[in-house]
Write a structure and sequence with these properties.
There is one protein chain. The protein is built from 1 helix and 27 strands. By secondary structure, it is mainly beta. The chain has 2 domains: 87 residues, Immunoglobulin-like; 230 residues, TolB, C-terminal domain (Neuraminidase, 6 Propeller). It is elongated, with a radius of gyration of 29 Å.
Length: 356
């Protein structure tokens, strides 16, 4: 190699080296957080002490603090790289989201999430039923909503092109009034509130409001849930189901969500909550595709009892196909309980009977 080539090689090497060094990142690296969540039970249960273990690794710089949030609520902060925090007698049910934000002294943050699930601490009581009487029910009604008001039965039916609301004579099954939906709407749950009938639809995210006496359509409203299933009210707010284990409370004026309640028993979330009924401070819900009705504490989402209506279809003598059980109506005056299903030819008055 001659001198001129050697000199060119040295100059090029120095240039590349200096370029590489000048492009090395001087940015501060985010702290890494490891999160461990446990309780004395194998699965976390309502009322448990929940222990949160935090370990923060900082590759450069120093840790200033780590903040811990549960569902966006700050529960603690700590400047140590490793610490344990205990949530005493945790009183929420369902899936919870923990967020840890570790911040270094230079302001750089590392944000990490971890979910955990809390089961109910109550084993639901088991009930069967006694059949009190069978009443006439139109077997063409694809039942989606059922309610008794002033001694009359109000029923919402589904299927596109067939959806409607009916006011029915409870004893005879005779239709006294009705209003039909447009063909694009699949009718779902109804509830009577402030002398109006509120109705959900399946996938169009729109609800309708009717005058109770005339059943004239007076208004509509939008809701955020992807699907509308069951609807009831507690005298203050509308309560809807969407096929999950979540009940959503809606403001009856703005129709915005007020709160959400996750429904759980002692083992699992109770999915497919369908037609709803509110009575004496409790919510009753059909569980879609089953013969179960669950009784729910609206304050915390705990399932208090399950009514098994298995065998009720044997009460039906019909050559025509029937669909699933769907429809609970509790008379607010007599407290009598009525149930039916989609395409059922009968409406049943039942009395829950506790199993031994």
């Amino acid at each position: 190699m001659n001198f001129r080539l050697f000199a060119l090689f040295i100059v090029t090497s120095v240039f590349v080296s200096s370029f590489s060094c000048s492009n090395k990142s001087n940015r501060s690296r985010k702290p890494a957080v490891q999160i461990k969540i446990e309780s004395i039970n194998k699965k976390i249960v309502f009322g448990d002490d929940i222990n949160i273990g935090i370990s923060v690794k900082v590759k450069d710089g120093e840790l200033k603090e780590t903040k811990i949030y549960i569902d966006s609520v700050l529960v603690t902060s700590n400047a140590e790289n490793e610490f344990t925090y205990s949530l005493k007698q945790f009183k929420s049910i369902g899936k919870q989201t923990l967020k840890a934000i570790a911040t270094k002294t230079d302001g750089v943050e590392g944000i990490y999430f971890k979910t955990f699930e809390v089961l109910s601490d109550i084993i639901p009581e088991k009930y069967g039923y006694e059949l009190v009487q069978s009443l006439t029910h139109d077997e063409t009604f694809f039942t989606q909503g059922l309610e008794i008001h002033n001694g009359y039965l109000y029923e919402s039916t589904g299927e596109n092109g067939k959806s409607a609301i009916y006011k029915v004579n409870l004893k005879t099954g005779k239709v006294l009034q009705s209003v039909k939906l447009g063909a694009r709407y699949f009718g779902e749950g109804i509830t009577i509130f402030n002398n109006k009938i509120f109705q959900l639809t399946y996938k169009t995210k729109v609800g309708f409001i009717y005058e109770l006496e005339t059943m004239a359509l007076v208004d509509s409203f939008q809701y955020a849930s992807a699907e509308g299933w069951g609807l009831t009210n507690d005298g203050k707010q509308l309560i809807m189901s969407d096929g999950t284990n979540i009940l959503t409370y809606l403001d009856p004026v703005s129709y915005k969500p007020v709160k959400k309640v996750q429904v759980y028993d002692d083992k699992n979330p109770v999915l497919y909550l369908n037609e709803l009924e509110y009575s004496d401070g409790y919510i009753y819900a059909n569980v879609w595709t089953t013969n179960l009705i669950v009784k729910i504490d609206p304050e915390n989402g705990k399932v208090l009892s399950k009514i098994d209506l298995d065998g009720i279809l044997t009460m039906i003598k019909s050559d025509k196909p029937v669909d699933v059980l769907n429809g609970i109506a509790i008379d607010p005056v007599t407290k009598k309980i009525y149930v039916t299903g989609k395409l059922y030819p009968k409406l049943f008055e039942i009395k829950p009977v506790k199993k031994g």
